[in-house]
Amino acid sequence: MLQRARDLAQTAYERLLERELSDAPSHVAVIQDGNRRYAREQGADTTAGYTEGAETTEALLHWCDELAVDEVTLYTFSTENFDRPKEQQEHLFDLIERKLRAFADTDRVHDNEVRIRAIGETERLPERVRDAIDYAESRTACYDRLQLNVALAYGGRAELLGATRDIARAVDDGELDPESVDADTIEGRLYEGPTRDVDLIVRTGGDERTSNFLPWHAKGNEAAVYFCAPYWPEFRKIDFLRAIRTYEHRAESWRRTRARRALTLVRALGPEASQARRILGRFRDALTRQEREAVEDDVDVVAD
User: Fold this and answer.
1) What is the pLDDT of residues 286-296, one digit of tens each?
2) What positions does the entry give for substrate binding (predicted)?
3) Residues 158 and 278 in one domain
4) Confidence of residue 195 (pLDDT cuts 50, 70, 90)
5) Domains in the chain, number
6) Which of 35, 95, 146, 193 could form a disulfide with 53 if both were Cys (CB 3.0 to 4.6 A apart)?
7) Is 120 annotated among the ligand-binding residues?
8) Cβ neighbours for 37, distance < 8 A, ≥ 6 positions apart
9) Is 81 among the catalytic positions?
10) What pTM was computed for the model?
């Protein structure tokens, strides 16, 4: 009876959160942390945590489809994971291979038109995993509704270093003018995969750090970050909805900052009243009523 009451309360709270949300992020990146700790607390072998965590990953893709998220990037195997015991690595490789093939064959992936891509130094992975990557990518290559990037043998600093070395070689060979190097030049040499900047990073397991994950796509975009205590196998839809609420609050804060900067610019424009009104119009919805009235008064005074 008590458990049923808890389930009903959780369902009601999920529905409340869903009604409150109005703007889902376009690109969500997830650090799936806590699988081993979860298994130890359950008294199970650590590899069992990864198996249960894979079930949470499947559920996450369903939630993202429900909320119209366009792109998901999963931190599945980092370059640092190569330092783990051999038997743990082999279990992870077996699980990754199995799940990639299963995802590529499941009806849900095809019904939801999910395109699977691997990003990272995939050449470092065992042949069986590389074969599974090729299989999943080829099976879903024609889709574009939801992009799923699986970060394998991935490290953010290694990605940026690789791009920097490519640019340095191009400059040294005379193929690239140093003065022409810009953000697009760097972005064109990053791992092929993410198609847009990251809006929200989610990390489970209690640690509050982003662990070298997508520094170019996330930090440059000032992505919202949501840290939560549940281990990845325990992560629920209600936790995901809370993460999106954090993103919405971050986006609203960003809009208000832009609006206040625009307000300052309006006041500094002096006689350029017509342009001032155009700038104000772009951001008026992010200002409070008092702020809008104050700016409009300033513009009217200038116009007079």
Assistant:
1) 555 655 555 55
2) 34-37, 78-80, 82, 84, 203, 209-211
3) no
4) confident
5) 2
6) 35
7) no
8) 49, 205, 231
9) yes
10) 0.78
